[in-house]
Design goal:
Blueprint: H1 2-8, H2 10-21, H3 42-60
Protein name: Glycoside hydrolase family 38 N-terminal domain-containing protein
GO molecular function: alpha-mannosidase activity
Pfam families: Glyco_hydro_38N
């Protein structure tokens, strides 16, 4: 979602980043994709969360 927003509406993206810096908005990191908890092992879910946290920080630059 964040990558798509940055590509499609850079002006809105910059505004959101400014709001985060001022403490008006919080981007909550989590999973990168919607999890399918019926199929993968716990290891896959943990790795998905770790990747999601890393990517959210990298994309947002915050």
């Amino acid at each position: 979602l964040l990558e798509s927003l940055e590509e499609r509406n850079p002006k809105l993206w910059q505004g959101l980043k400014e709001m985060v810096k001022r403490g008006k908005l919080e981007i909550v990191d989590g999973q990168y994709l919607m999890p399918d908890t019926m199929l993968p092992s716990g290891e896959v879910l943990v790795r998905e969360i770790l990747f999601g946290k890393k990517e959210t920080k990298a994309i947002s630059g915050i």
